[in-house]
Task: inverse folding
């Protein structure tokens, strides 16, 4: 999938790809936390997905912007979790294709 703007859901096939897999949860990582990660997480929320942002897998050249956006997302519309706890949780699932 090629992203053409800040959100990975805006004018892409991301939602339909997730639906085809019967996914109800989206894990979000990426650069420019204050822009792309926030935009993607909001659009995924508007599509009624459960969201988890992997905190250590986000970043921006201006850390103060990252930190405030992580706090905003966590207090607003999605879970923000650590990589280790998320990987531990994922390892408990069987993935069926």
Result:
């Amino acid at each position: 999938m090629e992203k053409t703007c800040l959100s990975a859901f805006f004018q892409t096939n991301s939602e339909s790809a997730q639906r085809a897999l019967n996914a109800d949860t989206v894990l979000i990582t990426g650069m420019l936390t204050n822009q792309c990660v926030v935009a993607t997480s909001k659009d995924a929320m508007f599509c009624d997905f459960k969201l988890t942002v992997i905190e250590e897998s986000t970043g921006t050249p201006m850390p103060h912007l990252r930190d405030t956006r992580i706090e905003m997302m966590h207090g607003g519309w999605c879970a923000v979790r650590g990589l280790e706890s998320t990987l531990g949780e994922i390892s408990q699932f069987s993935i069926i294709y």
